[in-house]
């Protein structure tokens, strides 16, 4: 018997994991500092950043730093997130997905259609946040834009942030819900049974390459 | 100064201290009487201890050429050619309009950085300002300016410090022609009516008051010779209102977005409680053993092929 057969499968290498967690940490900081200004009920969050002015100063820099790391992540993962024919089928069976009846679903590769959807929503909302964020960055950039543009960007920034934060709530919950997933981003490994159950085509592919 | 007569407060969802009540005040600026001497600009920097940088002449009388964090009022000069070919010099004292429904206050994210007093004055509290510039985005009159020195927002206070102790604003006190008057809003409207009658009698049939209802009326009003065309006066907006974009950004969308984010988290929580986690089962593990056994004895292609990359 092949000696590899009982070992866990490598899903992410050390660089990918570091990149992911850099984005995650910066996202939390960007989201908390942004939400502090988003609604009066959350203004107290400015205390986490040293008060209102510091929150206003830090937020855009945190956002830009997050963007830079996110770009790295996006380039690493984009190829694997292209939509395939089976993704439509998978999405149409969302009821089976949320009721844990995975055996009814088509066999899928490294990412399921939900993960791919999340990936592209993140790409779009991050870009929207970057461009609108620069327009509303009063200290350095707003003087270059007209008032109509600034108003539009303010609305877009708040909306894109809402989409992004809501998506990340779903993303985090999915990691809690589907047991055995978190290891992929901590140790980098997942069990063979996990891979076979959730990402059968990827499981096949990895096994084939191990031979 | 006054802290018991606040009827609106930025980024605040509960009632503000508002037991004390006052009459609504207003400043009336009569453009038909103004001679453009800028005494009011001087009085403003005197009273408020503001000394703006000395700038450059940009070829017109406007000086400084725009409102700044240190120049809270500016005379704007416009040369207007009438249909008869006559020249009219339309001079407008620009500055905060002290809107009944202030877009700056609506946009400001910092609790109490912008307040509106019961008498109608809209005031910035720089100590609470965080320098984000949202007030600039919200204002329909392009009034607030963020100082490059301290990143705080500044604008005309309508001399709230003077008014609260029974004095008129400094510009009013100084105006040599009586073009600026101050009193209760009702008195000022009456005064304006009398002025408009006079102007109409002298051939200005479109003379009128500028008290735009799109922002609920203002506590700085103008008498204009051409009230039908306020744009003639250095782009004074005809029907100013809080932009629908700002309304959408700061209106019901926000509480709804908060609710939706909380609901998403709650949906996750209850999904976990009702349906529960998705775990790898004993059968899944057995299947892996089976695949491995097959792979050991059989062809390398145990689990089927895939073109997925
Ligand atoms: C990509 C780079 C980003 C830039 C340049 C940027 C810039 C800004 C700026 C300039 C503001 C106004 C407050 C201030 O001056 O600090 C702001 C507000 C905000 N940002 Fe960002 N940001 C970025 C990324 C993000 C991200 C990733 C999130 C969410 C996770 C976010 C969420 C928010 C929120 C919720 C607000 C408050 C919006 C409101 O008041 O309605 N931003 N951002
Ligand atoms: S004119 Fe602008 S700054 Fe003044 S009260 Fe109205 S919205 Fe606020
Ligand atoms: S710059 Fe200051 S006054 Fe203007 S909206 Fe921001 S916190 Fe409020």
UniProtKB/TrEMBL annotation, chain A:
Bilayer-crossing regions: 21-45, 57-78, 117-137, 157-178
Record domain Cytochrome b561 bacterial/Ni-hydrogenase: where: 11-186
InterPro entries: Cyt_b561_bac/Ni-Hgenase, Di-haem_cyt_TM, FDH_cytochrome_b556_subunit, Formate_DH_gsu
Topological relation to the membrane, as annotated: Multi-pass membrane protein
Alphabetized Gene3D superfamilies for the sequence: Transmembrane di-heme cytochromes, Chain C
Family: Belongs to the formate dehydrogenase gamma subunit family.
Protein name: Formate dehydrogenase subunit gamma
Source organism of this protein record: Marinobacter daepoensis
Automatic annotation (TrEMBL), chain B:
Residue segments, region Disordered: 281-309
Keywords: 4Fe-4S, Cell membrane, Electron transport, Iron, Iron-sulfur, Membrane, Metal-binding, Repeat, Transmembrane, Transport
Subcellular location: Cell membrane
Cofactors demanded by this protein: [4Fe-4S] cluster
Cofactor note: Binds 4 [4Fe-4S] clusters per subunit.
InterPro entries: 4Fe4S_Fe-S-bd, 4Fe4S_Fe_S_CS, FDH_Electron_Transfer_Unit, Formate_DH_bsu_Proteobacteria, Formate_DH_C_sf, Formate_DH_Fe-S_su, Formate_DH_TM
Domain 4Fe-4S ferredoxin-type: 25-53, 87-119, 120-149
Compositional bias segments (type: Basic and acidic residues): 281-292
A Pfam family it matches: Fer4_11
Matching PROSITE patterns: 4FE4S_FER_1, 4FE4S_FER_2
Chief location: membrane
PANTHER family: FORMATE DEHYDROGENASE, NITRATE-INDUCIBLE, IRON-SULFUR SUBUNIT
Annotated NCBIfam families: FDH-beta
Its job: The beta chain is an electron transfer unit containing 4 cysteine clusters involved in the formation of iron-sulfur centers.
Annotated protein name in UniProt: Formate dehydrogenase iron-sulfur subunit
Protein source organism: Marinobacter daepoensis
């Amino acid at each position: 018997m092949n000696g590899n057969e009982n070992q866990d499968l490598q899903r992410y290498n050390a660089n990918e994991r570091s990149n992911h967690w850099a984005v995650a940490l910066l996202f939390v900081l960007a989201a908390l500092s942004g939400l502090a200004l988003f609604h009066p009920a959350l203004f107290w969050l400015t205390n986490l950043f040293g008060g209102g002015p510091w929150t206003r100063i830090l937020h855009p820099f945190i956002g830009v730093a997050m963007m830079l790391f996110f770009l790295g992540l996006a380039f690493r993962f984009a190829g694997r997130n292209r939509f395939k024919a089976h993704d439509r089928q998978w999405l149409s069976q969302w009821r089976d997905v949320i009721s844990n009846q995975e055996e009814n679903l088509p066999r899928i590769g490294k990412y399921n259609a939900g993960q791919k959807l999340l990936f592209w929503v993140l790409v779009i909302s991050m870009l929207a946040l970057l461009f609108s964020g620069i327009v509303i960055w009063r200290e350095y950039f707003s003087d270059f834009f007209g008032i109509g543009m600034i108003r539009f960007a303010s609305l877009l920034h708040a909306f894109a942030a809402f989409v992004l934060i809501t998506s990340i709530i779903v993303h985090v919950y999915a990691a809690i819900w589907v047991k055995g997933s978190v290891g992929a981003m901590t140790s980098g490994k997942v069990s063979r049974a996990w891979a076979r159950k959730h990402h059968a085509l990827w499981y096949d592919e990895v096994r084939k390459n191990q031979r | 100064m006054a802290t018991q007569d606040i009827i609106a407060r930025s980024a605040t969802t509960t009632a503000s201290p508002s037991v004390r009540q006052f009459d609504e005040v207003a400043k009336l600026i009569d453009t038909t009487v103004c001679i453009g001497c800028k005494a009011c600009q001087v009085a403003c920097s005197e009273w408020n201890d503001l000394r703006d940088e000395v700038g450059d002449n940009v070829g017109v009388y406007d000086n400084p050429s725009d409102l700044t964090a240190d120049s809270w009022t500016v005379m704007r000069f416009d040369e207007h050619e009438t249909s008869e070919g006559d020249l009219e010099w339309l001079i407008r004292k620009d500055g905060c309009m002290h809107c009944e429904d202030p877009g700056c206050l609506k946009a400001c994210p910092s609790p109490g950085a912008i307040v509106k007093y019961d008498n109608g004055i809209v005031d910035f509290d720089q100590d609470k300002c965080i320098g984000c510039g949202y007030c600039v985005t919200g204002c329909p009159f392009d009034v607030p300016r963020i100082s490059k020195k301290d990143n705080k927002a500044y604008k005309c206070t309508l001399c709230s410090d003077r008014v609260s102790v029974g004095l008129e604003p400094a510009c009013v006190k100084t105006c040599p022609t009586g073009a600026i008057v101050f009193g209760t809003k009702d008195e000022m409207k009456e005064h304006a009516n009398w002025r408009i009658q006079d102007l109409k009698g002298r051939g200005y049939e479109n003379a009128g008051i500028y008290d735009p209802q799109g922002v609920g009326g203002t506590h700085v009003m103008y008498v204009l010779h051409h009230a039908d065309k306020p744009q003639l006066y250095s782009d004074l907006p005809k029907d100013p209102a809080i932009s629908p974009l700002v309304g959408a950004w700061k209106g019901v969308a926000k509480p709804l977005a908060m609710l939706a984010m909380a609901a998403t988290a709650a949906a996750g929580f209850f999904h976990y409680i009702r349906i529960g986690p998705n775990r790898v089962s004993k059968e899944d593990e057995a299947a892996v053993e089976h695949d491995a056994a097959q792979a050991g004895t059989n062809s390398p292609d145990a689990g089927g092929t895939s073109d997925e990359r």
